Amino acid sequence: MKTTPVLENHDAPLILLGGTLCNERLWLPVIEPLNVSHFCSVSLDGADSAETLANQLLEILPPRFCLAGFSLGAIVALQMVALAPERIAGLALLSVNPLSCPQDSVAGRRTAVREAASLGITRWLTENLWPRYVAPHRLDDAALHRTIVQMAEECGIETFAWQTEVAISRKDHRASLASFTAPTLILNGAHDVICTPSHHQAVAEAVPHARWITLPESGHFLPLESPHHVAIAMRNWIQESKA
């Protein structure tokens, strides 16, 4: 697990959990307009389950914090809610799928890791994930593509393998959300075919007080596709969490 900490002794700092093949580059476009000085960006690796990652984080994080998770990071965030809801001052879930992994997709996920190792992660991602990662009008965005493949190369195949096992072994924690009372933000992209509107609807139904915002110009990679709109939504959520 890799972190980029700027925590000091601040009360309820912002903890940012990245997704599969993501590192701190995911959040950089959001941090500047968000204008927060006390945060920690976490790249998830080194464990094969959300529960293990969640427990590792809970051991090192401050007693109270605001928690934002993107994609795989949202899965780990939901696990943290299940384990220690009292420590989370606010929860933001971006591009989230709260459901357990379908068993008929397990073999394909593990095959994908082997193919990425064989082809090279940039080629494999470009051919298989890039068309599903971003909104259709961003498919020719060379800078966006470059950032996403750079993160993937920096993470590497071993991390991809770990993260795949986390995704495969994830559990449905919607029951834990039913009693979670802290301010909750749900963000999704209208063009996201990976974590679909129905996935976000499932979370919204589990947390009746949550604020759910759909970004009309985004696909899956909200923090990179629409950083300004993500920052506005998160800034309001942080203010509410610290009220």
Give the tags:
alpha/beta; 243 residues
Outline of this structure?
The protein is of the alpha/beta class.
How would you describe this structure to a colleague?
Helix 2 (50-60) packs across helix 3 and helix 5 crosses helix 7. The protein has a 7-stranded mixed beta sheet with strand order 1-3-2-4-5-6-7, sandwiched between helices. It is 48% helix and 16% strand. The chain has helices at residues 28-34, 50-60, 72-83, 106-119, 121-128, 130-133, 142-169, 174-177, 197-206, 222-225, 227-241, and strands spanning 2-6, 14-17, 39-43, 65-70, 88-94, 184-189, 211-215. The chain is globular and about 50 Å long. It has 11 helices and 7 strands. It is of the alpha/beta class and 243 residues long.
Number of strands: 7
Q: What is the strand arrangement across the widest sheet?
A: 1-3-2-4-5-6-7
Oligomer status: single chain
Overall geometric form: globular
Hey, roughly how much beta strand do the residues contain?
A: 15-25%
| Class based on secondary structure composition and strand pairing | alpha/beta
User: Main β-sheet: number of strands, strand sense, barrel status?
Assistant: 7 strands, mixed
Number of helices: 11
Radius of gyration: 16 Å
Helix proportion: 40-55%
* Order of helical and strand elements: EEHEHEHEHHHHHEHEHH
Termini Cα gap:
31 Å
Mean of residue pLDDT values: 94
Task: Detail the topology: elements first, then pairings.
Blueprint: E1 2-6, E2 14-17, H1 28-34, E3 39-43, H2 50-60, E4 65-70, H3 72-83, E5 88-94, H4 106-119, H5 121-128, H6 130-133, H7 142-169, H8 174-177, E6 184-189, H9 197-206, E7 211-215, H10 222-225, H11 227-241
Parallel strand pairs: 2-3, 2-4, 4-5, 5-6, 6-7
Antiparallel strand pairs: 1-3
